[in-house]
Automatic annotation (TrEMBL):
GO MF annotations in UniProt: ATP binding; protein serine/threonine kinase activity
Species whose genome carries this gene: Hemiselmis andersenii (Cryptophyte alga)
Residue ranges that the Swiss-Prot or TrEMBL entry lists as coiled coil: none
Name the record gives this protein: Protein kinase domain-containing protein
Residue ranges of domain Protein kinase in the record: 1-120
Alphabetical list of InterPro entries matching this protein: Kinase-like_dom_sf, Prot_kinase_dom, Ser-Thr/Tyr_kinase_cat_dom, Ser/Thr_Kinases-Pseudokinases
SUPFAM superfamilies (UniProt xref): Protein kinase-like (PK-like) (SSF56112)
PANTHER family: SERINE/THREONINE-PROTEIN KINASE TNNI3K-RELATED
Xref: Gene3D superfamilies: Transferase(Phosphotransferase) domain 1
PROSITE patterns: PROTEIN_KINASE_DOM (PS50011)
Amino acid sequence: VLSPAVGQCKTVYRGWWDGRDVALLHLRSGTCDTEANIFSLLGRHPNLVTFHGVVYHQQSQMLLTELAPLGSLDGVIDGHAAALRGNVEAWKGMVLQILRQVCAGMVRIGEVDIIHRDLA
């Protein structure tokens, strides 16, 4: 485990597993089994992080997922906002590309009748 990022509902740790960078999600609400089942239902999709399994560490469960190398979506947007300041067309293009990718992921989530509480 390398470095944690604390969010509202979970702490995300960056780690190393099977020769690659991964994310370890420690959920606060004790819903690890539910989240693992949801990830399993979703399967692989190019616009969703890949679920690798559940890890047990010091009497707690954590989800093991693909690491989003650029971090959270809002962090990516904020990081590019400053770089694209003054270039409205480039900004619009980036936002449109992000929205298309988010929508594609949400379509997959909706296909298995799941409501994503952060985006609903």
